[in-house]
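Researcher: Batch entry, complex prediction.
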Amino acid sequence: MRVALGQFNAVVGDLAGNAQKMRGMYADALQADVDLLVFPELAVCGYPPEDLLHKKHFLQDNRLALDKLAADCPDKTIVVGFAESHQDNNYNSAAVLQGGHQVEVYRKSMLPNYGVFDEQRYFIPGTRPVVIDIEGAKIAMTICFDIWNIDSLKNLLKDVGPIQMILNISASPFHIGKITKRQEIISRCAKEFNCALSYCNLVGGQDELVFDGRSMFADSSGKIVAGARAFDEDLLIADITPTIDGVIQVAPTQPPAPQPVGRIDEIYQALVLGTRDYTHKNGFTKTLLGLSGGIDSSVTAAIAADALGPENILGITMPSKFNSPDTISDAERLAKNLGMEFLTIPIEPILKRFDEALSIAPGWDSKGIAYENLQARIRGCILMSLSNQFGSLVLTTGNKSETAVGYATLYGDTAGGFAVIKDAPKTLVYKLAEHINKISARQIIPADVITRLPSAELRPDQKDSDSLPDYDLLDEILKGYVEEDKSAHQLVEAGLPRDIVHKVIRMVDRNEYKRRLCPPGIRITPKAFGKDRRLPITNRYSSFDDNKYSAHD
Amino acid sequence: MRVALGQFNAVVGDLAGNAQKMRGMYADALQADVDLLVFPELAVCGYPPEDLLHKKHFLQDNRLALDKLAADCPDKTIVVGFAESHQDNNYNSAAVLQGGHQVEVYRKSMLPNYGVFDEQRYFIPGTRPVVIDIEGAKIAMTICFDIWNIDSLKNLLKDVGPIQMILNISASPFHIGKITKRQEIISRCAKEFNCALSYCNLVGGQDELVFDGRSMFADSSGKIVAGARAFDEDLLIADITPTIDGVIQVAPTQPPAPQPVGRIDEIYQALVLGTRDYTHKNGFTKTLLGLSGGIDSSVTAAIAADALGPENILGITMPSKFNSPDTISDAERLAKNLGMEFLTIPIEPILKRFDEALSIAPGWDSKGIAYENLQARIRGCILMSLSNQFGSLVLTTGNKSETAVGYATLYGDTAGGFAVIKDAPKTLVYKLAEHINKISARQIIPADVITRLPSAELRPDQKDSDSLPDYDLLDEILKGYVEEDKSAHQLVEAGLPRDIVHKVIRMVDRNEYKRRLCPPGIRITPKAFGKDRRLPITNRYSSFDDNKYSAHD
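Model: Structure tokens for the complex:
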């Protein structure tokens, strides 16, 4: 039996476009003489469609698109994910298409409702196992999370008899370390059921999420035999052959696809794809961003240039009297290195007029923190005005560390449409800078930018370290508190300094309102700000006050 | 049996503060010699705690606070909601406290996971009915959604035998029409089980939500016998007496609390409480807002003045050359009428410098839409700068109609911390204006403000009607499309003009990114923008293109 995994980049809601891509892969699969062509979870409508699933007409259109796909592709068996509406219940389903019609349907039984997933908001779980027969091989259908809990899967399949293959269609988003977990799950599953496992994953960026593809086949020993490309479309084909002794062999028909070289390369590719897809899928060609000569905007610009072409990026430096000649010239040098457009718009005259106007308000301080932030807000205004004028998307440049502690100006440097490195801690941003220089084999990001002490340059001689702990320490605290939901007590027990832990937690908690008003960015860690971490703004709980429940006594 | 419903205003995460309020009500209940004192769903930690529930230390602190409450209040039976962690599972539970200890616990069986609710993200459903005995009466415990599906409730209680009362602790948020539904459910439930029903609801604002209180008692005929105050704390007490013929009588010990007079008054009270609680619970005393002399900012200011006291509101008018003398003087008159502080900061000099600076960018148009929006962005900068300087919360003034179609400037008039009338359609804003004048028995909001044609005043002679359909029509389309998830086809079938329906739907869909970056506001309709309506930004689905699934053919 020859199986093809059609790992394609679907767009949420683009029923016609997604169908067109699948028809293209169907044509290739015909050429390759496959017996079974597989597409990802909810491939018909894209993943996650969120509250589009509350629109009855969306579900109807989704069904029409599926029927049309069946009619257009009658000569092979196709398995494809779609949102099924049946007798007023909705299911996350996999249709089996044969001879121009849907001949069978499997309904996802395990609906994830944690992290970024809200599937119990939309779907009813299926309870019926579905086994199809292709060329004499028995194939059990599963969808994504169905295989992540081996006990539930065993329970689902307990009465189906021997199977030669488990088919899994997925929309499994990327985060650091996810591929290893995924391979473990798939390997364990194949071994447990002593069968091959064909895993077809989605690829592409969708708002905060990047689906990394990397569809794969495992043989019945649990060995991952073939893997599709990462962060790109691919049609992965293999021959699956049961042997006399009950072993299921898997033989790919192509040489192995190149894979990311290490963790930083993987993250970099996720950021490039996430930026490209958010931009293009939302109808933008051009982007612009503020270039400060600092590491964050430099890395953001380099990622954008790779994702969209440097000719589509406009960098703007907006110096005030507090910006050093060094950072201004580094911004320009970076733009030149990347080959992108560059503009200098000094903000000093605007700042002066603002300061005069605000002095009308009794108590206005021309040297205080509001004045500092005003500079960032003027820059935000300039970027949004140019975006408005030219139809370009504004990329923001804040990293995860500063997003966490609110070391940013609301409606200032947070103003824009997409936050490329929002989920990258500052220490990772440095590694990305080095990676960018390494893969381009030249100093794209000037050495000064990497070695200079970070500064917001909003007052004379300002340094990040005036307000924040050392980034190594800050990022360690943030990983524990934000990503792992540890308490202050646990972090201090683990050897982190108590005062700084408390200070950081206080900053994180107090800045929820600010994060809520930041543009979406690409999730690369196991817990990003956004759908992953849903905290109330109004919240008096403190994770460090040991006697808080009796504080009013 | 004497039952007291302790309807109090909890703050999410404020374990000590919530406990203190409950101890206060316990003291009152002792005085009133009640047998049973009831507090709302998750009263210990506030509702909804969202991802705080992912913090183990939060769950532990929650348990400690409950134990301390039990110890502090040993002399009466108390039922109180808390987040229970038991053997690595979390439950939305009601504890029964007696003699200083928890003696029983009921776990919510129906977990809402729709609209603004995400309870399946956090909790496992309970399956065990709990009946307690107070003074010989059998009382079945339920939590909020448990009573909304009568069949599930019958199933839960099928083996418990005869009961004299159902107790329901709730955190049921307000929206227009909700109270009627709630009364129906409670009445049906009491009749069905032929018992009294004691319903204790939360009160208070929490981010987008306002809990309206209005706890109540129903007798076994289904009659609502007593109701607590709306949008305020209250301790509602009644005597519940089984008679010989199986009827359960309910007799309140107090005269009935005054209730809102009609739909607009109810909405107005919700907005006042939502504004007060968001402001105070987040640590602000002072607020500020831009006053344009238009209806939206006038109504927002009046609500804020009622909620916070006019001495805590600063209104700022920021005229450009496009603002008419009439609107400027109306802004000032409104501020005087309300007795709030008022400031005029002209933006013309700043606008001029911005325009000069932006002219550095080839293609900048000093008369285009970006220039129009720049005025709004300058105003946003001024308000945020003053907020920053004075520690005041910026209230934004956008209504639901303009929020829906994106008739607002991102990081301009949308810049701020809290959006008071974000869920009020424009046609409702006019009704609120009239209501405000009516209840104050004078022309707080100047007549001109109500009768003048709405305008953003960003270019000469601009009117909202240049860009938008008539607000009556717009609001009708938005109700169908946004709140009821109808398709263009359905709206046109219902008699709405096709071209305008399509135009409006296109505007709503395209502006998801903008809404995502607007501050939270008070939910008053059955579907507000926010947690209620979760649509992808990246979304190519169109609800009006009848052949979209084959558009690429």
